[in-house]
Amino acid sequence: MIRSKNISLNNAIEGVSASARRKAFRHKLPVAISENGKTILVYPDGSRKPFTKQALQALKHARA
């Protein structure tokens, strides 16, 4: 919820994005971003991998 009318929608989205990224990285999980029309997983160590079924399966097994 935006409490101040002076905050733009873009600033609010950036704040939520940064918060979600910190939370994911704290739990050693990647975040998904869109880059050039493709979904990319960005890992806490800075590495990037394309989002694929194999990547999703690897995440599921890592969390189990």
How is this structure best described in words?
With 64 residues, this protein is an alpha+beta fold. The protein has a domain at 30-64. The protein is built from two helices and three strands; from the N terminus they run αβββα. The chain has helices at 9-26, 53-63; strands spanning 31-35, 38-42, 48-50. The chain has a three-stranded antiparallel β-sheet. The N and C termini lie far apart (34 Å).
Q: Provide the gyration radius in Å.
A: 14 Å
Look at the structure and give the mean pLDDT.
82
Total E-strand runs: 3
- Please estimate the helix content: 40-55%
Strand content: 15-25%
Order of helices and strands: HEEEH
Oligomer: single chain
The unreliable regions are none
Note the total helix count.
Answer: 2
Strand adjacency order, main sheet: 1-2-3
Rounded to the nearest angstrom, the distance between the terminal CA atoms is: 34 Å
- Major beta sheet, specifics? 3 strands, antiparallel
Specify the structural class: alpha+beta
- What characteristic shape results from the CA principal axes? globular
